[in-house]
Amino acid sequence: MFEIVDDLQSRVLVSVVGIGGCGCNTINMLNELGVSERASLVAINTDSAALNHCSVEKRILIGENLTHGYGAGADPAIGLEAARESRAQIVAEIEGSDFVVLTTGMGGGTGTGATPFVAEIASELGKPCICVATLPFVSEGKMRMNYAQEGMAALRSGSVSLITLPNEQLVTALGESVGIFSAFKHSNQMLQSILGSLIGLLTDTGQMNVDFNDFCRVMDYPGDAILGVGRASAESDVIEAIQSAVANPLAERIELGAAKGIILQINCREEISMLTYNTLTNYVNEKSADDVLILCGLALTPELDVALEVLVIATGAEDKTQEKSSHRVEYIGGDPILDIPTFLRNNQSKVVN
Question: Which fold has domain 212-317?
Fold first, then answer.
């Protein structure tokens, strides 16, 4: 079930695309961490002022004729139409990549409306794609939450693995007394850890590598996904590390046994024992279904600030909260686009003057 495969990581070009305000904030954060040395960072927004504050060189102001750079007005229909207007620019930025990572916030205008369209472009170009999306607080209102749910339904209808990080679970995990800035700092640190480890898996060379085609096979299972990172200060703490990776309290809870494909990446500061390795792989085997595809990678990473880091990616889990049949593929102006959510069907002709 586990296999050692050839090293192809050095040829992999990863594009990380931040969409909307939340996504662009994440791109800035990754750029400050030096991720741009290993991945192409792209910022996409309808708000020219916010985009000008992005620290990356690759920036796309979508829908300039539609919104005049003033944003989507919290309307996902405008976000989608803006992305459609700027399709050629989006294609130009991601067509040379091997893998696309989307990071966004759901519930507003640009992120909710444009992200499914960018995911569809990646699919049409044959690029494996994974999306990490935050969800609004319940207190932000039913409209924002409904928009977020419809945006996720549109993403699930395409060929994308979706990881959701509900802001509401910050309260559950950290407690209501936590400071708001501390809570968001905690969430940002988790995003850094998840995206940084994913990029490392794709671009770094290890002693035991998951090759790119096998990685793509796991990513080909659309639906909900787990992407978690666990860290251990000593080998004796490996169980806590793997449990933390698969049951992140800030991520949408998905059982490992529901996945169709799993990648287990182990990064260690020094050589680990066979007992430690077997403990980790046995844990994943015991928690997963009998017919799941499991791939394992192992890398010696001397610069690691802990003894061991575990990355788990599990894809293809069925979403149990949405009725996918209620969303269907429609056509506007003769052009096929993603499964059209309610916010577009109700606002097909809406523009900003």
Answer: 60s Ribosomal Protein L30; Chain: A; (3.30.1330)
